[in-house]
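Continuing from the previous page of notes. For each protein in this section, the sequence appears first, followed by its structure tokens. Read the first protein now.
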Amino acid sequence: MRHALAAEQLGLCAYCMRRIDPSRGARDDKPRAGGMRVEHWVARSDSDDGRSRVFEWSNLLGVCGGILEASHGGVEHTCDKIRGDRPLELHPAQRELDVQSLFRYTAEGEIRSDDPRARHDIDVLNLQARTLRARRREVWQRQGAKLRRDDSLGVLRRMLETARTPGKDGRLPPFAAVVEYYAARKLRQRGAKP
């Protein structure tokens, strides 16, 4: 089940977009790079809906361990580790709505949205954690460095393609949505279609 979830999600945490590895379990007590756990979108503790959906595929998500080593020496909790049983508004794989289009990213690594449901989920999952912001900022800065070397439309289109296309291992790069947002935004600024 873990391998199937990770493959379906192209190797990324359903919430924060960090890399997940189905062969490495996430630990509850300390950070473990790439560790993965199976998350129930509707919590199992939900007395009405949760218990009946325990094994329903659309209710299962692959997520990271939710424990990040912070630069200040402590740890930060994100994703399902901090969520607990609190309900979320938007299912990451909701087919009727392009959930990713509700989010935007900044050069500082922040994730933002004008949609109240998306803002709710950002808060519940602590997606503004300092460590996640720093990692998204690094991804943003790498894209900027590529453009400083060659700012052609071809480079932007390759960035976009890389963010949308799994590699030979079937996985997207971590924080692929940041790259996709960055490249699409730059293409629109130049009057080109993403």
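Done with the first. The second protein uses the same format. Note its length before scrolling.
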Amino acid sequence: MAIRLDGHRTNAVQSSQEAIDVNPTPPRTTKSERIELRATPDEATRIALAAQLQHLSISAFVLQAAAAEADRVTARSEFTLMPADQFDELMASLDQPQEIPALARAAARRRAKER
């Protein structure tokens, strides 16, 4: 761990000339929103233990876990996941459209002029 001149902590690799920032900590933003929750004694104990094992406050641990889960849920809602073979079948079906006789007849009919 190294401390940069601007005061941010960073993981750094020491070269013969200077320290190179590998993973700089982003500047802190003001946290203005409050989220409250209730937990059973067992849940609270498990969360507190996990936070302690990660060297985090309970608040930081819960926020980190909830934000990660929110990102996962949001990402799943934005993308459709399917097996590769199913995707290949879908793409092939788009390249070779299915013949639909009723649709072909409707497209072939003459249209009356609109007034």
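What the second structure shows: The chain has a mean pLDDT of 81. Strands lie at 2-3, 9-14, 19-24. We return to this in next week's lecture.
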